[in-house]
Amino acid sequence: MWETGIAGISVYCDSFSVVDENMNRLLKIDRLNNRYFAMRHGHSMANQQGIIVSHPDNGRDNYGLSELGRKQVRASLQQNNHLDAGTVIVTSDFKRARETAAIASEMLACSASLCEESRLRERNFGELELAADDSYNEVWQQDEVNPDSQARGVESVNQVMARVTSVVADYEAQYFEATILFISHGDALQILQTAFARLDASTHRQLEHLHTAEIRQLLMNGNYRLS
User: Fold this and answer.
1) Which of 1, 96, 144, 161 could be bridged to 41 by S-S, CB 3.0 to 4.6 A?
2) If phi over 0 gives left and psi between -120 and 50 gives alpha, with beta otherwise, what is residue 23?
3) Residue 220 near residue 213 (C-beta atoms within 8 A)
4) What pLDDT score does 81 carry?
5) Domain boundaries, the chain
6) Partners of 55 in the beta sheet?
7) For residue 125, what pLDDT is reported?
8) Which pTM was predicted?
9) How much is the pLDDT for 221?
């Protein structure tokens, strides 16, 4: 179980299943019951400082959106015509994602409460926590060689795929013909779209990444490869 962080508009979502590691849960699904969209949080104070913030102790209550990030989120939602008041918003419990979700809920006038989901948290970058964000590159290089690598305490790419796809599997069981917006982080969403494309987790950097505040529909067998 995890705690909610936005008073009055969040709910507990602790009834879902336990994650099975090293498995793309979407491989068991032939046809989706719902429409899924991914939204990366807006530009954050961590982005502004150029550091990695991936541990809950740092990310849940600190390093929220920058002023640029708030503007990005509003602009992205204004340009999107696929989401409406009926959208179910599911967000990482990190502050930058929660603040993004709160803006989205307000702008869309969503009828449902936000749901915080710890499985949509940023990938845990272990010993690289609070290091310069150019350190991501060494992790991504290792991902290509071994998707089970946990060098320097970094959460493996297969572990991330297992937890983020388990969220989709649970919402597939809970909803039908719903529009669901996942608000999360760069690597978590990069790996999730790799799962939707039914590709090996080690290839995630070969796909087009989401920019801060970008909204993208997630399609089964979707082509997200870099052109």
Assistant:
1) 96
2) beta
3) no
4) 94
5) 17-218
6) none
7) 98
8) 0.89
9) 83
Tokens of 22: 């090293």
Q: How distant, in Å, are the alpha carbons of 14, 128, 143, 189, 219 from that of 161?
A: 19, 20, 12, 9, 16
**φ, ψ for residue 44 (rounded to 5)?**
-115, 175
Sequence-ordered strand ranges (E) for 146-214: 179-184
Which parts of the chain register pLDDT below 50?
1-22, 227
Amino acid at 36: Y
CB contact set of 127 (below 8 Å; sequence gap of 6+)? 152, 153, 154
Burial class (CB in 10 A: 0-12, 13-18, 19+), 127: exposed
Fold of 17-218: Rossmann fold (3.40.50)
Q: How far apart are CA 7 and CA 27, in angstroms?
A: 36
Give me the half-sphere count of Cα atoms (radius 13 Å) on the Cβ side of residue 70: 10
Name the one residue in this structure whose structure tokens are 């499985």: 119
- Taking only the tens place, the pLDDT of each residue in 106-133 is 999 999 999 999 999 999 999 999 999 9
pLDDT for position 23: 79
How many CB atoms are closer than 10 A to CB 40? 27
5 touches 62 (CB < 8 A) = no
